[in-house]
Amino acid sequence: MHHFRYVSQRLHCESVDLAAVAQLYGTPTYVYSAATMADNYARLLKSLAGLDVQLCYAMKANSNLAVLRHFANLGSAFDLVSGGEIRRVLAAKADVRRSVFAGVGKTEAEIALALENGIFAFHVESEPELRRINHVAGKLGVKAPIAIRVNPDVDAHTHAKITTGKSGNKFGIPLRQAAAAYEAAAKYPNLTLRGVQMHIGSQLTSVGPFVEAVQKVSPFVAELKAKYGITYFSIGGGMGIIYKDALASGEAAWWDAQPADQRPLTPETYGAALVPLLQPLGLKILLEHGRFMVGNAGVLLSRVEHLKRGAGKNFLVVDAAMNDLVRPAMYDSFHEIVPLQRDTARAALVADVVGPICESGDCFAKDRQLQEVGEGELIALMSAGAYGYVMANRYNTRTMAAEVLVQGSAFELVNARETFEQMIAGEKIPVFLK
Ligand code: LLP
Questions:
Q1: What pTM, to 2 d.p., does this model score?
Q2: d(CA 266, CA 217)
Q3: Which of 293, 347, 369, 402 has an alpha carbon within 20 to 30 A of 147's alpha carbon?
Q4: Using CA positions, which residue lies closest to atom 22 of ligand 1?
Q5: The CATH number of 296-423 is which of 2.40.37.10, 1.50.10.10, 3.40.50.1000, 3.40.640.10?
């Protein structure tokens, strides 16, 4: 469920007409719905009632300071993966002390920054990393709280580039070696064993793999609790969202109409399956969802440059490109594309929706059926709130897009469009070329 819908044939985010946002701030622009994020947060927590749960929102999905502040206000902590992300949490005046620090290659400087700011726990991915964290903690004269990421070797049935819990992935320590890793960790003088963690992949569309992973890892978790007194189990993130029928899925009726055996994963299904498995552990449960929290809470607004009619092929050339939203080029991902002004009297159009970048991969959709739209008209790429702006880049010397946050009828620019001067500010011609 989300808060994007047509009101008098004009696409709105909550009570804001998106064409007005595009008019004011130009395109391409990301627009996020604060109410959708708040609803997602409340719904996820409600579905896990009966557990002692802390959401550590995976801020890699969308780390705009306003989004972080919003989640902090709701009660969320953060799953962070770099020194930069620690600094973002601090800049948003949010809480590092309840947040966790993941990633396979934390540098000494990043570890020190996390310790200085009272990180809740490091999620450790290897034995060399234990040594490194112990070393940095020793230098600072503190004890570093840690959890080891175990790799349960479960197939998440998702895109190969975003599956993480198989034995061939670079993440975590295999379950059968994890006991030895904890034993090693317990011997380090500057480490405290605080928990255990796993994360099997992203954009999971059924509950089965989550259940399998929890069942597989739970006996080990219980052992760790008995042996070391660990206090939490982080089951990671990974809950998928609707991409194909993104707009329609904002309505309860769409969910009701899905055949029971094909109903997409919901937080309610997730909770119903996992609560009974997790409750007996008697531990705090950490969640690290990113995409589910923000994915359907954001769109990317873009303007049509041309409708280029070819022989047997039409191209809708828009002003957003693969640098702004890289997911279709990188993962062949599907994003629904809708006009901001709906006109049911218009003819249908089948076209490839492409950006202006000089390579064929710069394509948002192939042979997509759309309402006919022409030069100057506006479209929205749906489900762009997660892994959208954060993965954007400046390829073809295109500046970073703007970001806007909506709440009710209020909206504000929360990240100004980058200027050319800002983009080249760090560059210079070396003396030997002058
Ligand atoms: N926890 C850990 C340890 C992770 O590695 C990730 C995501 C998450 C939590 C959050 O997963 P989520 O709830 O968002 O599925 N760029 C890709 C997704 C990469 C996900 C990486 N790790 C995409 O655009 O699909």
A1: 0.97
A2: 23
A3: 293
A4: 202
A5: 2.40.37.10
